[in-house]
Amino acid sequence: ELKLPARQPGSSIMPGKVNPVMAEVLDQACYQVIGNDLAVTFASENGQFELNVMEPVMAYNLFSAMQCLTNAIYAFIDKLLNGLEANRSQCQYWVDHSVGIITALLPHIGYEKASFLAREAYATKRPVRDIIREHHILTEEQMEHILSPWEMTTPGIAGAAWMEASQRKISG
């Protein structure tokens, strides 16, 4: 689903593979920060009375953790996020082959038709869009608006604003 920028030679057992090394670097920095946090926790617990002789180790680990995480995040942004690309065709494939998109159709076609689509998609292992076309449940334009990934991930009913506007055009 994601095309990572190549930052090192490929895998030793899978030539050409792009390893997620910058994500792994960020993981390692987080593990170091967890270790620093543990040192601060133990030092804090072992302070006697109101005189905590452990303050130097606490300060060292706290500042070290902040510096480590700051550097790792800057490297992650520069070496991974700035070159990251979505594999749009693969993402679209997963959207099209997900029976979960029927949830977005429910307010528009009702429970019975939605259930029918889900059962047929599961049984035939075909994309929901193909079954909608085959049974003329929605027009291509309606389907494009309702099943748009943007619409399905925005709060509210997917395609509702477009459907309402198109109804006003028809009646007005």
Task: List key phrases describing it.
2 domains, 172 residues, mainly alpha, 8 helices, Ribonucleotide Reductase Protein R1, domain 1, 2 strands
Question: Could you characterize the architecture of this molecule?
Answer:
The structure is a single chain. The chain has 172 residues and is an all-alpha fold. The chain has eight helices and two strands, in the order E-H-H-E-H-H-H-H-H-H. It has helices at residues 21-45, 55-79, 88-96, 102-124, 128-134, 140-146, 149-152, 160-171; strands spanning 2-3, 85-86. A two-stranded antiparallel ribbon has the order 1-2. The longest helix has 25 residues, at 21-45. The chain is elongated. The two termini are 43 Å apart.
Strands across the major sheet, in which order?
A: 1-2
Integer tally of domains: 2
* Topology, number of strands: 2
Poorly predicted spans: none
pLDDT averaged over residues? 90
Class from secondary-structure proportions: mainly alpha
